[in-house]
Amino acid sequence: MSGDAHGAGLLRELRTIHSDLEIYGTGGPEIEALGNGNVNNWVEDAAVMGVVEVLKRYGWFKERFEEMLADIKQLKPDVLLLVDYPGFNLRFSEAVKRDLPETNQVYYISPQVWAWNKRRIPKMVHLLDEMLCLFPFEKPIFENAGLKTTHVGHPLVDELAADKLEGGRDPNLVGLFPGSREREIAKLFPMMLETAKWLRSWRADLKFCVPAATPKLEVTMREMISEAGANEWVELKAGGSHELMQRAACGIIASGTATLEAATFGLPYCLVYKMAWTTYCLGKMLVKIKYIGLVNILAGEKVVEEFIQADAEAPQLGAWVEDILSNDSKRDALVARLGEVSSMLGEEGAHRRAAERVADWL
Questions:
Q1: Which pLDDT tens digit goes with each residue over 213-249?
Q2: Could you tell me if 6 and 154 are in contact, meaning their C-beta atoms sit under 8 angstroms apart?
Q3: Domain span at residue 263?
Q4: Is the pTM of this model over 0.85?
Q5: What DSSP string describes 231-282?
Q6: 3 state DSSP class of 71
Q7: What's the CATH number where 32 sits?
Q8: DSSP 8-state symbol, 360
Q9: Which one of 42, 69, 164, 267 is least enclosed by Cβ atoms within 10 Å?
Q10: Quick one: pLDDT at residue 247?
Q11: What is the pLDDT of residue 266?
């Protein structure tokens, strides 16, 4: 749901520039709260990843697409702001360009085409009026292709600044972060619980905590903890992931924005990722990058251990946690390196800089 948070941050800043701003569209709960009843919240229903997973829900996505297109043709907005979610948004952009060529299109949180499909860049040059990217290495990729591009910095710098806590870490606490989507929970959380059980056989004093991103996921995860017989030593909380990242001694984190958050808070962690095997095999043919973790991509080298597909199992993860908790110098070196990489995210004010660019198109 990071796209919802980032989009809402931009819109809040934009409203301070244009007090009469009208917002229509779709988004998550944070954007919905800014829309005065004009924003549809279907972020949880849309939170699927992978070719196979999306094809299973093709009919549902097609219905939402046609509804949105009908709405925007009636509204004729000054600006179409596309936030993240490239599989859907780039197709929608094409339809809007065809039917409403006068509507300015700005994309916030640039699609990671540098990883999976550089052939889409010329198409984006034709469709979009401006790209707002988060990482410095993205700007020349789009700009050299002819697309007006602004590097605004990463909004996490702003969003996390207010959540920083005082105090140290609990040396006996391990944070589990299985993600914010149902698919991620189904794939990753049982393996994390098995890892916790494996680690308890090594050190009985270890405790584990996991944040639930939504009330719906909280119910599902509580059932999984109970089925695993882990109620005594796995604590489930509603939200609070940023607090946990600052209290835990180390963490196991699903690939995604949470890995950047953890790096910013200085949490030593390893990355895990699992998906349907068909999707994974297709992805291996399409994705042309060495690492999937954003910290590793930013650094250009392996900073964080990545456990992917068959490697993401309890013995491997348990061995990593045991090693990082037992080796102070190794843990300190990882924390220092995470600090160096997170400094590459830029200075505070990303939401404001992005909002000023959208305001120009208004």
A1: 889 999 999 999 999 999 999 999 998 999 999 999 9
A2: no
A3: 173-345
A4: no
A5: TTTEEEEES-HHHHHHH-SEEEEESSHHHHHHHHTT--EEEEE---HHHHHH
A6: helix
A7: 3.40.50.2000
A8: H
A9: 164
A10: 96
A11: 95
